[in-house]
Amino acid sequence: MSANAYNPLDEHHQSSLEDNSTSYSSDENEQTWISWFCTLKGNEFFCEVDEEYIQDDFNLSGLSSMIPYYDYALDMILDIESPNGSKLTEQQHELVESAAELLYGLIHARYILSNRGMISMLEKYKQNHFGRCPRVACNNQSCLPVGTSDVFRTATLKIFCPSCQVLNIYSLCLNYFKSIL
pLDDT at position 4, please? Predict the structure, then answer.
């Protein structure tokens, strides 16, 4: 199993489990896969997608053909025990974990276009989860993450400043500092 593999009872995650207000109602000591995934380093820009949204087949249309181990990955995201999950090899289990991460990213991309998703992202924006523009003239303007392509792995995430209207503001600043050094 990979180092970041989801295990709701893992000692590493135990302290965050006790403080987690979105844990299962049936057991206060468990954390959902979704909340665990969104707290991983590098996943700060993800918001928690409502399970009701994920359970609606309409919202997942076309994704099953794009994701290997789709059913297992979906079950992992929704914290459902797969009846044949114990029959998977260690390598297959790692593939399911990767598939779940990819599937969640694709679901998230659709979710943030819905009303509830936009509200979730607006809250993150208001709380400056996406950073602030480093340019002095922008007065610490909150930034927005922007996906420039809806095709997986064709483009990387960019950061946009609504004040100066620069896309990938951090890359621009890094290039500026490299040029003066």
Answer: 53
CA–CA gap between residue 3 and residue 120 (Å, rounded): 29
> What domains are defined for the chain?
31-129 (1.10.1820.10), 130-180 (2.20.25.20)
Q: Which two tokens stand for residue 78?
A: 């929704």
Exposure string for 11-25, b = 16+ CB within 10 A, e = fewer: eebeeebeebeebee
Longest dimension (CA), the chain: 60
Q: Quick one: tokens of 129?
A: 């989860």
Low-confidence ranges of the chain (pLDDT < 50): 1-3, 7-28, 176-181
**Burial annotation 126-139 (CB, 10 A radius, 16+ → b, else e):** eeebbbbbbbeebe
Residues making up the chain, counted from first to last: 181
Neighbours of 65 (CB within 10 A): 6
Q: Residue 36 is inside which H or E element, if any? A: helix 33-39
**Global pTM?**
0.75
Of the candidates 150, 173, 170, 176, the one whose C-alpha atom is nearest the C-alpha of residue 158 is 170
Nearest alpha-carbon partner for 130 in 120, 141, 142: 142
